[in-house]
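Quick illustration, no need to memorize.
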Amino acid sequence: MTLEWDGFRLALGREGLEFAWAGGGFFEAGVTSCVSTSLRRPSRPDECHRLDFRFRFPGTAPGAESAVIHVDVPPGAVEQAQRLQDLLWRDYSVMVDEDGPGPEAETEADVESEGDPGAAAEAEEAPETDADTGPAREGTSVPAELGRVPNTNAWIISPAMARSEELFQDVMARLANSDH
């Protein structure tokens, strides 16, 4: 799949994602290095949508282990950008980040926790609970049961995102319907 507009080209091929800008700018990375994408709406009428890609490169030199690529998407290419996001999610399990990488990603690409730290602290103090089964998973109404994962506290710390739950349910349904 290829996205192309004035001064920019993005191609998804066998080698991975290739970004090329007019004037010689070029970035290439394997799809497995892409951990998330987000398509952000413009905050002002004179702005374009922005397609963000977040990459991780474990085992590389400090300061080179991550990259965030921001691409301005003209109005006529938004639908195409959404199709690319869907393809990356469906075929390569690249997460779609509905909120985007946040303003701190523009200045510091290797930020482990994005969003408002105060909000995270408040959420930890008052978790949602289900009277019968305990804390609920963030973003879902599914209780945090541990029947399908190892019985350790490490699995409780980070609840799965809604998209991860969808993927898990899809994989489990495929396994249940397979001949093996």
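The radius of gyration is 19 Å.
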